[in-house]
Known about the structure:
- By secondary structure, the chain is mainly alpha-helical.
- It has a single domain, classed as Cytochrome Bc1 Complex, Chain D, domain 2 (Orthogonal Bundle), CATH 1.10.760.
- 50% of the residues lie in helices and 0% in strands.
- It contains six helices and no strands.
- It has helices spanning 2-21, 40-52, 76-79, 86-95, 110-116, 122-138.
- Helix 2 crosses helix 6 (122-138) and helix 4 crosses helix 6.
- The protein is globular.
- It starts with a helix and ends with a helix.
Amino acid sequence: MLKRLxxxxxxxxxxxxxxxxxxxxxxxxxxxxxTSPTSGKQMFTSYCAPCHGVDGRGHGPAAVALKVQxxxxxxxxxxxxxxxxxxxxxxxxxxxxxxxAHGTAEMPVWxxxxxxxxxxxxxxxxxxxxxxxxxxxxxxxx
Length: 142
């Protein structure tokens, strides 16, 4: 009887410890305001800054809840031999990226919004992606 009770207590303690350590299942709710498809900066501030920070360096207020620190988006030129990887950025914005911080391919904030936004108007969706990509290019460190 004591052995069974001890094993039950040990199993409970283990299960509690694992569930406490695994915070990846938690969702962070970030209020998002409507933005103009013509303003890359406004979209970045609403959709990207919660994780990547207002300055794009990866230190946004929601970053602490992610498994991996968000990318420093100001150093994309440096990582690509001085050239902004516009094709890659457009692909990430449109289709997402498999990175451990996200858990899924889509960006935690941007992905669901873009996926449901302008579903009948591909031009508006492309305008958003293009303007956000241009804004990211404008914040690159020299």
